[in-house]
């Protein structure tokens, strides 16, 4: 067991390296890099942004030779200003040097500063983690707590009215996009047109610090109710159907028929024998489900409910070509996914001791 765990942990290193390297070189060849983004902003707002790169509030006269600066969009700016921008973002160094420095920094978890937000990347991520963790954790927990009992009940009552109607409901929920359901929830319960029961912005209220501990808990869930409902509505179908089919497959196996013939209680058969085998495939999908909800699935919900989380941060950084934020988010989420995958394997062995990954 220890040798297997050590091998899996060591495998994390080349996996992280491969993903970061591939994305680094793909993004480097994409048009509209951070230098071009900064030049475009500078040309559009000279009076506000010139101080950042020149140290003075005076406009710099356009240069006739500015088209030789080497960056598309630099026409109209002095070449010295363009060079200062390149130095500011570290793009005066060759590609291989930037890549090597990035790898060295990431080994020590030093992610540098955001190119456009003016803050440390780790601090930016820490500020947004509570939102993404709240959305991902509660959504995943609710989906699993509802879908697994629902799938088991559907398997036991296969072909009944309950099975048919519950299947219809979860499929309809699956067909409704999360952002569309969010709009419906906002119109009905937060816009004031019908009801004004829930807030539209933020993770907590402005006076959160002045509330008592139980009021803080209530305020937190008051803000989380609509976003979480919007995220979970489409998540029940896949997991409940997967649970149902897994249990149906196990229920029809020979060892279940033998257990019934021996007179074992139906509940004991279901939860002591069938449950352990049928849950293996459910456990296997947990890491990917959590990462999907935690990172990508919450982006639109974060936008609609003004929740500044990791998904929104990563999307905006990609649009702005804010490379430190892009690569840091990718690095952290990949590392988290790999660790969750290892935890998933350990859970396999906890659920079914017969599984021995080290022997394989």
Automatic annotation (TrEMBL):
It comes from the Bacteria. The keyword DNA-binding does not apply. It is a multi-pass membrane protein. One of its GO terms (biological process) is transmembrane transport. SUPFAM superfamilies: MetI-like. The chain crosses the membrane at residues 9-27, 133-152, 164-190, 220-243, 280-305, 325-351. Residues 129-344 form the ABC transmembrane type-1 domain. It is found in: Cell inner membrane; Cell membrane. One of its GO terms (cellular component) is plasma membrane. Pfam families: BPD_transp_1 (PF00528). Keywords: Cell inner membrane, Cell membrane, Membrane, Transmembrane, Transmembrane helix, Transport. CDD domains: TM_PBP2. The keyword Transmembrane helix applies. Belongs to the binding-protein-dependent transport system permease family. NCBIfam families: PRK15133.1. PANTHER family: INNER MEMBRANE ABC TRANSPORTER, INNER MEMBRANE ABC TRANSPORTER PERMEASE PROTEIN YEJB. Probably part of a binding-protein-dependent transport system. Probably responsible for the translocation of the substrate across the membrane. This is Inner membrane ABC transporter permease protein YejB. It comes from Vibrio eleionomae.
